[in-house]
Queue: 4 jobs
Job 1
Amino acid sequence: METNSDHKHTNSLANSSSPYLKQHAHNPVDWVPWSDDAFDKAEKEGKLLFISIGYSACHWCHVMEHQTFEDEDAAEFINEHFVSIKVDREERPDVDAAYMHAVQIMTGRGGWPLNCIALPDGRPIFGGTYFPKDAFIEKLGAIVSINERDPDKINDYATRLQQGVYESDLISAENDGISADCAGGPWPQSHCAAISKSIDDQVEDWKTSWDRQMGLTQGSPKFPLPTNLDFLLHYGSVRNDQDTLSHVRLTLDSMSRGGIYDQIGGGFARYSTDSDWMIPHFEKMLYDNAQLLTTYSHAYQAFKDPSYKRIVFQTINFIFEEFSSPSGGFYSALDADSEGIEGKFYVWTPAELQSVLTPDEYKLASYAYEVDVKSRWENGTSVLMKWQSDSVLASNLNLSVDEFRSRLDSINEMLKSHRSRRVKPGLDDKVLSSWTALTVSGLCNSFKAFGESAHLERAEQALNFILKECRTEKGGLYHSYHQETGHSIDGFLEDYAFTIKACLDFYEATFNEKWLENALELTQISLDEFYDEEHGTFWFTSKSGKPLFAKKQENDDSVIPASNSTMVENLFKIGKHLSRLDFIEKSDRMLLAAWGDSKSIQRASNWGISLLRRSSNFHEVLISSSCADKNLELKMELSGFFTPQILISGHTPSSKYPQWIKDVQAKNNTSDGVKIYLCKAGACNLPAYSVEEVIKGLNLDS
């Protein structure tokens, strides 16, 4: 164990791979990491478990640590009565999900820090989020007393809660997958019409809660929720719903002008504490920024707004500067705090701005960001935020938009240089396979929208890191990597789901079939290790993993897509690319079961995207020629449009996939030259010879 004479206390977290656990290594609480030894110790000593779950960038986790876990008296009480386990929710999303569901059942809410009291076998009996010190110790004392007086009552409650956790968010699918598009296949038209109406009704109901001033949904706190925005953009485009599309634009514009977006350094914070996107909870998470690359890239394809390209490129620069790991993957998060103060790194006083800028520069910056006026926060500081669009601001200053942006960009660079001398927020430098894969997908979608080769090159480096360096001896994936301790923790379904998706996204960006084969290999492992034939869905933990007190699926689309909804998309796409009808049947089985489970579209938006693909007009586009470069050229031309209802692939004489193309070519005697096939429900039109013809066939030019 690490020893350091500067610290009065050192516990067994000191040698952990997790930066979050290391933050608690010198608490007087006798923390131990999640392990069999911790459970054995609790059983042997007849103590309850105190399981505390958080993550390194969590502000309220830091607050509770300082108030309670660094307090000698509180620690003495906790050590006397409990075996205390610290868990990094990012390293152990399985543990977090199980105990989070328990707390939500017990209290109706959840969040971090997540604190649970459990029996020595891990079954929870009490839980909550942040507690002030005195109230927390009082509650712990009451639990200890009840457990001593009436252990049978506690055990009975634990058993009932265990069953409730197991059943929460559980989907069990009928054993009869349906495997064709609505148009012309076994999905009856009446069934598709009912599904479409159900989606429409849910969206109309959702609209009643939209924030028509600042975007997304009314109330606070306000999360970016890329899964919601991606669905709404997809839905609005499929239905030609201008109200929905306008709301997506309003949301994206408000977010990118808000304090939640770092106007100086790029990148989005996790959420805003208010309804105006103004005051962020200042931590920056890789998963948010990775997904928003896709969201803004798709929005650019749909609306051709150059400001969205700026946001994508600025966010990518932020990711490259702050999150790039020498391993090839990407780091996880930046803390909300620096020098123990939330947001200190990011906020500005008028005096500090004036010390950096000339009077003319300060005048422009203070006007653009409404410094010390609408953007004023606390203690005389402002969170830089643009309350109006660049075009309005430029017009009011009698400048062109380009001139305004050029001047503000120059000011931002000076402020960024000055800010770099401040004490930076702490970096969580572990690399997660799942979040790195999300970033690969974001970079691939940026490349498809803008053609920036550097984005694709960095994506390939990251994907190769996962596929080559994050593999177990049996070929599976690891979940977590740290440069000091190497790999730890076998992969969860999210690691496989997002990595498979990244491989498919890379194939669609390059038409290199090795990425399809990588996706297929990982899909087979996923089916072997995670799939439950009886339920027709995937468990979050593998069959070979050590079980928790309750086995869980992940079906809720929240700040990231559910791993099961992602596998629905993966199975469908691989099934189409490789003519694997069995994969499509599994995908349909899961999809129909999830939708029949009466899930709210706001919590099932990624499921909703797959449902739109299966219940609305969907096409496969195959570009075929003797030259791979020509195929890619045509693909990039097609990528100038937002085409959420197509699956695109490329073919040359040396291609293995799709195998059915040979039959189509023979039927139409079209094996030579450039041909673009537009196919629907297994039937292909006569080949087109230009992207323009395809666009007309898809009705995208109207």
Job 2
Amino acid sequence: MKNNKYIVLFLALCIGMISCNEDEFLEEEVFDFYSADNSYVTADQFNAAVTQLYSTTDEYTIWGALTSMFLYQYTSDVAYAANGENLGINSYSNALVPENAYVRIMWQRFYEIIAKTNAILDRIDGEETEFESEAQRTILKAETMFFRGNMYRLLAHQYGGVPLVLEEFSEPKRDFVRATQAEVYAQVISDLEFAAANLPDVSELGDEVRLTNAAAHHLLAEIYNTIGEYDKAIENASLVINNPSYALMTERFGSRADEEGDVYWDLFRRENQNRSAGNTEAIWVAQYEYLATGGGRGSIITQFFGPSYYNLQGDDGVNLFLGPTTQNGGRGIGWFAPSDYLLNGIWEDSDTDMRNSEYNIIRDLVVDNEDSPYFGQYIVANNLIRPENNLYNKNWTAIFSKTTVANNFPEELFVDESTGEVTRNAASTFRDHYHIRLAETYLLRAEAYLGAGNTSAAADDINMIRARVNAPLISAADVDVDFLLDERSRELLMEEYRTLTLKRMGKLVEKVQERNPWYNGTFDSSAQIYDYHALWPIPQQEIERNTEAVLEQNPGYSN
């Protein structure tokens, strides 16, 4: 089992902060309490604070269930909430209002991380601070500015212009005003440019957990695409792609390479996400450690995106399955489900694409309950799924292997190893999770080439991705924004923040109306999405608290 480097690092820092000999202890000044003034002095203290930024960011963006990256799936064109029309923000017209809890929680969490970064940045250059070298101080500043830039990036994509808070406050402030979206993007670029210039290259970094300059260049490529500065996007993406330390994985590798599968499947198996596993595609990875206190939760996308197949019954009312099993992907609950676009549309004419192979999208299961007269039969091929037992496709659509660790759940979760039955806790990936993967960098550069009018170069980058998975290669004439979005869906399904991708590319309303079944007439629904939904509302609570200035609401939403 690999060490949980976040935890090991944090504990080491804590030990370093409290260990000392008796003489040194007697000479130390005694503080009655910890404050920012005495907690941000030594390099170890600053390092511990930056380490917390990693952990909190992972928690709020990856591990945090419905208030994390899940929110950017079912509000898009690739998925929808399968429990009903008015669940979460499944219906823009009914749920996306300034008072919505999700609107408020995302805002508050992003600004919480920003406040932590400002506390570090306001104090790291203080005269009383203690660092072994200026290089040590600068790298910690660069990491901190990366996190601040990333949070403002998410805020700008989601809410548009937001207040730019760039310093620590010692007393309540109630006169915030919104910067423009362009001003927020400019701040993102400023922070990320500093990070890119001062973070180490991956070849210099001994710890695979910490950020490198490649992560900053990757996000800069996205932001420059968003604001239409395509030459700068190409430049930043190229700095990552041309780095000899990074390469797409093209051969089987890692913990389960001797099993049936393919290299795309390998990318998402347990223990395969870090460079220590031979993965040269990973750029920034959220770390998880099973059974370690504070070791992350693992993404419970297994639970929320996996269908609840074990609730399926035959026409005699007998369950088709024993229950959740390791071979069938664990315990999904079908909170949200793939759209037909993701399940079928993007795979037309892609019979050879390994991302659509039997290993990566499981489209049929064998009945395993011996009490069922259908025991041993395939449920789809034999038409055993009754529509009334599968409302909104909650109990069955397909199992996407990258969202589960089928046949590799921890042994503590087994109810019966002979049948593969597992407990309700078999609902997580139990593995690290990609924040940034090189395949997306290629797609960002393809986007930039397309924006710059060089469709031939865009096709070349897309073909790098497609060649790896044995998909038919394309020509320059095939490349447009829609094709690029399709390729992102094929490669980055349940990895990218799909809703934010559609927002920044100006396609949210169009694609939701076209592909989300709550909006395109597939389901009986009152849900509507309008142009103003391209930006979320400013949380009403934040507007009401801001009593000394006007925090303006986005158009289309009433205060």
Job 3
Amino acid sequence: MANANMDRLRRLGVLIPVSSLRRERDLGIGDTRALHEMVDWAVSHKVGFLQLLPINEAGSDHSPYNAISSIALDPLLISLEDIPQISVSDIEAVAAKQNLQSDPDHLVDYEEVSSAKWGLLAQGFDDFWAEDEADTVFDAFCVEEAEWLVPYCKFRWLMELAGTEEWELWPEEYNTPEAAELYLASMPVEEVERNLTFYAWAQWHAFSQWRKLREYAHQHDVKLMGDIPIGISYSSADVFFEPQWFDLTLSGGSPPETVFKDDAFACQWGQNWGIPIYRWDVLEKNNFSWWRRRIEKLTDIFHIFRIDHILGFYRIYSFPWRPRRNEEFIGLSEKQAGDITGGALPGFFPCSDDTEENRAANLADGDKYLRIIQDAAGDGEVVGEDLGCVPDYVRPNMESLGIAGFKVCHWEVRGHGETLSGADYPECAFATYATHDHDSIPAMWNSLKGMLGGLDHEGAIRGLELLSDFAGLPKGSSADCYADYGPVVKWALFDRLLKSNADYASVMITDIIDSTERINIPGTVGGKNWRYRLPWKISDMPKSLQHDCSRLKELIHLSGRG
């Protein structure tokens, strides 16, 4: 149960991926110990919550939204110093040998990090396995979590043997759940037990560290905010060992958007994320046990969680082909595409909002499924990312359920073209200028300024006008009306955000430190995506930025947050 002093407080949050944090001996990626230091920073600056990205174990693309398990946590985020069998000297030796700390681009090098951390985990497990006495706490964890842990460990080891999480590419000996069970049963018992126990041991340490961190944050009146994607990766332990919950003939995504000007497929057909569609009728017959388990484990760690693409609970855009076939359909007409698929075309599942009957059905579905999520969450607070093509029934329904929807301040526009004042936001709202998929505030402002006088001059003026209108800054139809980004613009934007009526307000860490770096660019894979790191440890923040943090603390006080 939440403490009374943590209930219904207006809070400011800071979005920062755990992987972006730095500390001594972090081996090139942020971890639970670095986040512990970030909690201390939040306490000293009256920041009410830390908004994180998903922390489930990711696949080879390292996207936190493409996890190989709906529950298993990412071992790369474990603090190795907190594992008894791993010594500080061993960590320092690996760091020195692989030169992990010298990253001039300030990016996570996942290949180096994975080699270092999994190598040390394996070394530590060797010592654990050799110990004479059983660890009763670990044994209890394995028993309590067996429902998801056992299939995850099997999948994780088979994935290691095959060299990929894409189970369709695994050898025939184990590329189906039935074959996998026979394959494992044919192997030496001790070898199987040892390897499966290794992955369970890593998960035990991950859950132990995160649960302790949650309690520490709770004791200091800081909330940890997690993030849960609407879907789960096709190449996951869940889909492989529990296929009954998923329709594998359809891939979830989003409708066409012209904003992706450089992506011909997205402009024509939409974004094909490749996530399987849920068989909601089958899930319901089993009392939605898969979803309940997923949410209950999430609230083991987080006080608040954000549902990414909450619109998918009402209806979700789907494709009758896997993403690897996307290029095959670029430039084709619907008839030509239908000739290839047997008539099936991308569209909303289970139905579009083209009739009142369909709208009512989609609303009823979303309401039912979100009530299940809330029931499983208990005291956990639920926030919904409701951006994109939003049916007009979604936000009233979310508000009636007490699920805070997003208010991207410069996107909330009245009928006459001016931004909605933050004073008019409902309390049940999450106010911000951006998500991890967007530019930071300084990057956004600088980008619009840079477009002035160019081909999209009018669009740039409109963007600056909306931001300025919300922040109470001067605005007009010429470039001279808009100042360069600096303290005046920054604090006007921060002031209006924090003083909005929304219970939740959030800025990215990049907004605070005036960084123009991106966390993710939607529709792209690789490059700098998901690799952003702070240029220094939070304790080594430059004095000029420390001054800004002190000013932020004062603004938090003046705006009644925290």
Job 4
Amino acid sequence: MRFVTDVPRPSFVDTPEKLEEAINRCASSKLLALDTETLGKQYKSLDDQVLYMGACPDESVRYFVPRQYVHHFKPVIESPHITKSFHNFKFDAHRLANAGLTVKGPVADSLVLDWLYDEDTRENRHSLDNCSWDYFQIPMAKYKAIVGNNDPRKIRPGHESWEKFLDYGSLDAWVTRKLALYLFDKLDKVPLWSGQDWTLTDLYWDMEEPQLRCLYEMERRGINIDTERLETVSKSLELDMERIAGDLCKLVGRPINPQSTKQVAQLLFEEKGIKPIKTTPKGAPSCDEASLDHYANVDGLEECKLIVKYRKAGKLLGTYAKGLLKHVQKDGHIHTSFSPLKVTGRLSSSEPNLQNIPRPNWDVHGIRAAFIPDEGCKLIVSDYAQLEMRIMAEASGDKAMIEGICAGRDMHSYTASLMMGTSYEDFMKMKEAEDPAAKTMRQAAKAVGFGIIYCIGPQKLASNLSSSLNRTVSVEEAEKYLNGYLAAFPDVKNQIDWFKNHAKKKGYVQTICGRFRRLSKLKSRKWGERGHAERQAVNTPIQGSAADIVKKSMIKCAQDAYLNSLGCTLRLQIHDELVFNCPEENAVEAAEIIKDYMENPFVNPLRVPLPAEPVIVDNWKEAK
């Protein structure tokens, strides 16, 4: 470890004279780094309070500002002319907002800058302490090591941990500023496209920074929750679980706990003599979700059907019905946290995860109905139809796929008709007549269409189709469907090969807006790592471009002054779906504006339309 000599000593702002000096230097800064020390992550985003603030206006000073002086920095923090740097802007912005301070002006988030610079070899190393060591060899202490079991509110001058706390709290801001400048210099040197002037720095200011603003506002507003509805669903699920457990015990002829892996394994593999389809790392027969689904839906084992039902009801109860209630904050809303750092470019959601709420067709208990508008308002829910297929059509230029999309056909039926060698009109007649062959082929076309961007193989396709068709589909049969799909859309196969070859040659692929996905493991000697990287070479340009399109639409809606004047605000972004809250009297007008932005995210339109159909509803479940 090298001896650090270029970091200035912390300056504790504890007098009016020091306060005036700190404010003046911060007010004249071109890049002001800020960081907050708070009560801790155990407090919700609306409740956590700033105890101290670290501020770094230039490389020669780092201030540690106690709580009683933080509000004096309001003119600086709210100045639209000073660029603010944070490492995880949204976290600090929420805590400052709790203190009555709104961060204004451009935001340089070094967390996102590091992700944009290298999402590949630095995956899961974007934290400030990792960045500090990796780039500058400056070690940073862990919060727990400094605070220990102490109440951070009691760590003051004279406390045994004070000097370390003072250093810790001001070093974050100093390193954040240094890191932002370092990364901007790196990003400036990475052109997006050959022969063009735009760099990754431009991409950050054009898309990533505005998205951070959108995500912060969505998190801040939250989504209203009908807690009575969730409590009703909880009671219903508990009764269902009791009934299912009773039915299972009657069927087995003795007491059995459906949640017990040991008891379920004994029933299936010892008493019933079922041949396991997979084993655990220790070699025992597996009772995981996929195995139980297979025994229930493919083998038709009644005991497994009940076990699967029981466990699904238990997950709904614990994760959603009761689980969501734990996250309702004092304003009656859930304030999830969105992360923009997934390698695909998609968002992830946590505390709670709202991206895995059961889809409408599986939401038999109506959990989505608990997501409601504010009083006097409606929800406007709008998503894209088959967005990833449309991006594949745009990328590949496949004439048959583009023709079907532009004609407004049901793409799964259209694909199935091509795979069967029949006209679309005749296939639709077969479908309306509930012809089993048409049903099977459409399901196969749908499974391949969704799986193709993940480079799905015959074995995985066979497993997926076996579950969806409730019968065993052989690998050979699945391979015929896969080949039929690629024969129907020959340019899709060519595009997949192009993505893979480009990635192997260049070491990366790009999304429609130019964001890079580096794939260093394409050179791995491990077959599993190399295969995964090849799949990412195909998946990222499609899924990542879908993320770009949603991101563009979200930013346009959030920045539209007239839409804001109507009181229409973003509340959730779930994959390809945007959820808005809007006063009832303005909902129809707002929905038209939202539709236009979503269907026209770019200045130059794509070769395929991007239809979006906003619906005005009283709860999220009604949207489907």
